[in-house]
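Researcher: Go.
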Amino acid sequence: MYEPSPANKFTFGLWTVGNIGRDPFGEPVRSALSPVEIVHLLAEVGAWGVNFHDNDLVPIDATPAERERIVRDFRAALDATGLVVPMATTNLFTDPAFKDGAFTSNDARVRAYALQKTMRAIDLGVELGAQTYVFWGGREGVETDAAKSPSDSIKRFRDALNFLADYVRAQGYALRFALEPKPNEPRGDLYFATVGAMLGFIETLAYPEMVGVNPEMAHEQMAGLNFLHAVAQAWEAGKLFHIDLNDQVIGRFDQDLRFGSHNIKSAFFLVKYLEDVGYDGSRHFDAHAYRTEDAEGVKDFARGCMRNYLILKEKAARFNADAEIQALLADLNLTDSSVAAYLGPYTAERAAALQAATFDRKALGARGYGYERLDQLTIELLLGVR
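Model: Structure:
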């Protein structure tokens, strides 16, 4: 029941299962895997697809001949395993050239190089089948606001995305952009810290119809926000182009924990929402194994991400079929013919009738909603006693 299939559209990045366990206080604990080895590992554990930054696949200083060989071998691994590449992105945060940002750097030469690097990475992504292109501005921010005008930075970011959108259109690529917000880390403050901020920014772009968001669970939770609400806002706006699933302890550094390993109830309601609304995109796990793990532990991590999603999907189906839970939900949404005439699109007549209506405020305040019972039933369902 909990074995992944291609229909689930589970994906991992080369940087996720390929994480070697380095952190700010410790050296690597696992040997690096080649992109070809990662593709075969993901096929072994049952993933559907693999995503990459440009330099996850092709080193930043690779020669043209080296690039050709690497891409050829990677494509052969995809063909041999049946894995697909739904999404690609550009690394604009690791190299020292981007220490002050890429599209928002104060150095115009850096901004120009970032555009060049991204165009080449877009070409690579499309070459391998990507239909979504993610932008995570890992260095687009500041440690001190003395350094940059935020208005200038917003304009620079907008100009870059408009330029790249025009490039995609000129090349005839069937590619959508997905912007990924994060509040901080590695910079002290990052621009466009939340999904809501990105949604507002998208409407200022030249081609807002081709730009959406890629919300990440840990990024919203780092700021103590409700990830489900961010995803719902993106979905309602028609902008949920991609999603990054992982887990996070609120208030900690960006942990990228195995999906469903910490905030089980939050993960449950997220999975239930995605399945209920019919989200048909990739379920991308942007996470990595504990630093304590060896190669087999990395496989356990990847299998665990997918298995937890499928377990929670099955729990969501039980929630939707549970007679007592559904009866409570039905009772919550009271309908009353006496107020039906007041609710709906504005008309002058409806507004006048509503102004003249009388409501029993004390009775409204006295009503109990039964949320304690509803939440307890949810907990019991998740704990397996229901």
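Model: Residues 323-382 form one domain.
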